[in-house]
Amino acid sequence: MGRLNMILFYCCGLLFILITNSTTAATDTIYPNQTLKDGDTIVSAGGIFELGFFSLGNLPYRYLGIWYKTIPVLTVVWVANTKDQLLDASGILQLNDKGELQLLSVSNISVWSSLSSKLTANSSPVAQLFNSGNLVIRDDISKDLIWQSFDHPGDTWLPGMKIGVDLVTGIQWNLTSWKTPDDPSLGSYTVWMNTDGYPQLYNMKDESNPKERFGYWNGRGFSGMLGLGPSDFYTFDLNREKTYYIYTLKNRSYITRMTLNHDGNFAQLVWNNKTWDFSTRFLEVKCDQYSVCGPYGRCSINTTKPTCACLEGFEPKLPEEWSVGKWSNGCKHIIDLTREKRHYFKNFSDLKLPDSQNSWFNSSISLKECKNLCANNVSCIAFANSDILGGNGCLMWSGELIDIREAPQGDLSGQDLYIKMAIPHKKKSYLKVALPVVSVVVMLIFALILYFWRNKRLNNNNSDLVNKEQKQDSDLPFFSLNEVVKATSNFADNNKLGQGGFGEVYKGVLEEGGEIAVKRLSKTSRQGITEFQNEAICIAKLQHRNLVKLLGCCVQGEEMMLIYEYMPNNSLDFWLFDKNNSLLLDWPQRHHIINGIARGLVYLHQDSRLRIIHRDLKASNILLDSNMNPKISDFGLARMFKEYETEANTNHVVGTLGYISPEYAANGLFSLKSDVFSFGVLVLEIVSGKKNRGFSHQAHHDNLLGHAWRLYKEGKPHELVDVALGGSWSACEVLQSIHVGLLCVQQNADDRPNMSSVVHMLGGEGALPPPEQPGFFMEMTRPKLESSSIMSTVSVSTNKVTITQLEAR
Q1: Which of 155, 288, 411, 616 is labelled catalytic?
Q2: Domains of the chain, with CATH numbers?
């Protein structure tokens, strides 16, 4: 019996030796005094990553590293011994009792060590490879972290890995390129975070020579990276306490990495089951060479080589160098910005924001507060939002603004930058005395011209009312043609915002700094003169936060123009019906827009000095200001009513198909309830992200109104919600909005609520009555437009209605 016990003791000992010295391919853990020899590997629990020895190219040198196990192409994500390679396949890796991983050569010389120092008494260290690709040494008893490979990045940024700096301990997490594709020793390029001013990422060629600047995370993308915005499979976060960026996968089925290669190019790659695809190549355009255009220079990305131009209001410092393509000295203010001179802020849109080393930031204040701070700070040169997605946060620059480029149209990294500019000093002259007199005379002439043109072109039975209003509005500010030409850079194509039946619309900047939108009557327009006059009369005296403000007009020679406040965020249809832009229009913004439009209509219908029916309410006529507040625009087709009037009749139906009410289309009868119908269509479009006209569904031939009505009757109205909203919408608010929208588009005008009731309903006040069947709930046969854009007697296959004299828009 004693001999049997002795045999069992020796067998157990031999088994222990075999286990601790054999290959560890079946485990993800290394225990103390266990060795990993060349040819052995450990694999993460999910089988994604593998740790072991490898060689590169045809070279005999051996390295210890981590790579993707499931990918047939060797893709190394981390290397331990980047400084000292093993000369042959005799290296071993072991975890000692002190909790240190050591890589030893054949002669037992240490080639690399984790140099852990956090081990305490009575600890039990283990090394483990996680599915994230992170090699971790931890205490198996307390579970405390002792060391991890993620704290020592190489050339690869994996999900969950930090890039930045710990301001308390001073630890830095940087990416460093390899020397060559077959040599993982330290290369020439480093991606690191600069914490001077607002924290931002750089790609450095050496310590004092930035290659490119990635910028900072602005809520939608990195301010200096083309194309790195919101993604379907990853998201970025900034830890401000320790100041580092980290990105995580939304869908763990993706295999993705970001790599800084040996020649300094930074790219994101995604495995497609065969090869690595470039999901995004960062900074591959020449404009992303750091400060290629110098201070206040803007680089254009639409050319094969860098093309620099001074920002508007600036001029080259050295014109002789600038003219031959030497831009490094940059630009300067045309009018020096001094403490004594009055100033304003000029808005530059769609820019990669300047280097933020010389910046101050506050993440909790609004853009308006930021502007006030900059205005009262002598050293402040410019300001911008730090978080454009949330609309909060303040960034203020001092010193020269460098490394600016334009962002391509639709790129989510582009931002607005507000630069402080000096107001030109104008000498006093007799013109200041004469100008008011001249203005009155010119406006009287303008009124007479419009009167005769109107009687020549149209025979409208409302002419007496219009004439009266025109005289009352003769104090409408007058802009000279020279002012408008200068503001729009002579109607330059790059200032053109859009075009309609009226004519073209241009962005302009006045000399004193205000931004404007110039609506220019086309000389070939057949409907513009009437719209021009009507719009000038209707909106001149209207003042409401949800109506676009008319600043004045310009009539000189053949030119007729209306001058409006500029809306930087385009029109609602730009956001609502675009696949990419709609992702940025979340439900709180959409609900805010619905309520704003409703309040604007209440003002038009009952609170303004005259009742006004818009008659062309649609998504493209809702403009959005810098804070995404909605403003009703385009009053060219509007009609004014006296206080006691509620409806009128016309033989000349105008408007936009899909928004016109049934009684107006069929009988030419329009009223306040015509606008209510259009508003209801708009509400359903905002909720669904779909256009009413042109909507199609595989199960039926109804338009959007009919589809919403079906879902409501089936008890499934939530299925109308735009998929772009994800799961972030408020069920109560959305269902309430759908219900109100259906009440507004009912067939019978008398059944529709007025707009003041709509505002109360949207606010959740009182129970909502059940809606009746909507008007035009089937798709209308699309009529063919004649060359004159007038359609005569067009049949519509819904609700047994015939539209006569419908003027399309």
Answers
A1: 616
A2: 23-150 (2.90.10.10), 153-284 (2.90.10), 287-422 (no CATH), 431-566 (3.30.200.20), 576-809 (1.10.510.10)
